[in-house]
Design a protein that fits this description.
Elongation Factor Tu (Ef-tu), domain 3
């Protein structure tokens, strides 16, 4: 399994018991969707390795307490600390309407109500305070904030996102 075929679910943050149980901090708004998994991929030195889950349960809001098969003591658990957890993309719940996963809209065309066709989304920049669509318009990079007020419609069939940006925003990049 390759990382690009998976999504980041969270990270193992600490040991829970002397029996090899671990606590993972999940990167999700709905941790309850992931408390009955049979297996999970763990990134060990750049390779995704499948681990089978003996038992798991939510522990305090966003932590998942996990007992992996064949991890039976503190020493074994120690080797997995700070490891990242991944699941195949098909495990992501389907989103509807104007909600979307970042990876899902790469390659979509952005159309602005006032401006018309803006360009194609080449990436999502979420390293800033507000996530941005990085759009390629014939070699020119245009950045549009991913603001719910700007997003009018996400059309998965035509692979387009209609936005209504403040007047002049797109022109800043083109002049």
């Amino acid at each position: 399994m390759k990382k690009e075929d998976c999504f980041y679910l969270g990270k193992i943050v600490k040991k829970y018991s002397f029996k090899g149980e671990l606590l993972a901090k999940l990167d999700t708004d709905e941790p309850e969707l992931y408390d009955n998994l049979e297996a999970i991929f763990i990134d060990l030195r750049g390779n995704l390795i499948p681990f089978f889950i003996e038992s798991s349960q939510l522990h305090k809001s966003d932590l998942l307490r996990i007992k992996f098969e064949d991890i039976d003591n503190e020493a074994d658990a120690e080797t997995l600390l700070k490891s990242e957890l991944y699941l195949p993309l098909e495990f992501l719940p389907k989103l509807k309407g104007n909600k979307f996963y970042y990876h899902e809209v790469i390659g979509f065309t952005i159309k602005d109500s006032n401006f018309g066709d803006v360009g194609v989304i080449k990436a999502i920049n979420d390293a800033t305070a507000q996530a941005l669509f990085e759009i390629d318009r014939n070699g020119i990079e245009i950045l549009i904030p991913m603001n719910d007020e700007f997003i009018v419609k996400v059309d998965r069939n035509t692979k387009t996102i209609e936005v209504n940006t403040p007047e002049g925003l797109i022109d800043l990049y083109i002049q």
